[in-house]
């Protein structure tokens, strides 16, 4: 390419020199030479001596040398421009990669602008100028697009990429945390469901038990086939009858008991009302005999029940003349009168099994506590006939009290007292 350029320049110089030559009709014929070749193909006359006048040949040679130096300088300029183009092309490629798309503009045809240059140096320079301007325009367009994208994002492009990566990582962490929370929620739901089912099962069992107690359908063979056990002489073991007494003008109280405590079996039962803690009390304490207290009045009963065997006891009383009777195992052992005569039994009090009350429902004295077992505690609002009492004692009839019947759901125990199944008649036969 440089050889052709040199040849073109040489021909142009030769033509110009022929026009300016003082020798009419003279012409120069030169051949194309590479840059490193000698001027043998275009012989020039020898340079004149210093100080002499230049001949036309010498002037022509000087012009050729000057043009050759110009061509060498253009070659160097073209090399520098080619390096600049390569650098700009690299920058352009990087900018296009960052912008994420192809640049649009004139000259982006992919053709090598340095290939097949025209022979005229002016055209070469002009074409190079156009190529450089095109590259400059494309670079400015890409830089403007890059700045626009960065401005829209509010951050430089590299910061934007880092931010996007960070946001992606945070999103993945958030998704993992959500998944973990969902797993924990599922486990907690399962645990809560199991706990709820267990609680509901327990509540259902308790409800069923309460229903059974209300209906008298307990674990005993029948609602009355149980006993209350009071094994220690304390002030906190006792049973309580849920029902209370109405106002009574007569009563019969019967029960089965077994005790071997000494001295005295204690208090099998007591009934206290507001203002009178000893409204009805059956007690044996110390070396005293068994006593019946009504309205704090006392009658000693000829009963003996501290042999550790089951005994059936019945006590009758009427307000008329304060008449009373005492039966043991169906046999009348004592009778009397003037026990709180004309005093009606007050209603609304508290019935306690195994303790003597100093106040209504409380202030128990351990020395007066009953030690043993109790069963079939029944109260009627009349005086039973002797034959009725015999029939109850020998288990020939089942006759629950019409005021206070002995049923499981009517008796609560406290302080370590307990209820156990028992058939008192069978136990009585074993004792015999």
Keywords, separated by commas or semicolons:
432 residues; alpha+beta; seven-stranded antiparallel sheet; 6 helices; rod-shaped; disordered N terminus
Rg estimate, integer Å: 66 Å
**Strand line-up of the largest beta sheet:** 10-9-8-3-12-1-14
Could you tell me the number of beta strands? Answer: 14
Ends apart, CA distance between termini: 146 Å
Which sequence of SSEs, written as H and E, runs from N to C?
A: HHHHEEEEEEEEEEEEHEEH
Assess the beta-strand content as a share of residues: 15-25%
What share of the residues lie within helices?
25-40%
- Counted by DSSP, the helix tally is 6
What ranges have pLDDT less than 50 throughout 5 or more consecutive residues?
A: 1-32, 35-51, 101-119
In round numbers, the mean pLDDT is 76
The largest sheet, given as strand count, sense and whether it forms a barrel, is:
7 strands, antiparallel
Q: What is the molecular shape?
A: rod-shaped
Based on secondary structure, the structural category is alpha+beta
